[in-house]
Amino acid sequence: MLQLxxxxxRLGPVLxxxxxxxxTLKQLHLQNNRIEQVRLDGQRAMLFSLEYLDLSRNRxxxxxxxxxxxxxxxxxxx
Length: 78
Hints:
The chain has strands spanning 3-5, 14-16, 27-29, 37-39, 52-54, 76-77.
């Protein structure tokens, strides 16, 4: 799977990406949901190829410290 569209689904308030096993995913679209918090354990999450992450139009105020350091391929964060 290269793209996953979960936008406009009223997801939230907590988005857990700890056990995600999508090593070939390049784009993850999560815009326009109700996400207030993101949980990501970089040691367990398999998002090695993620280049594009859209979290826009959610209720996020901050991202977890160190989250971006585990997303080595990420080029675009919205």
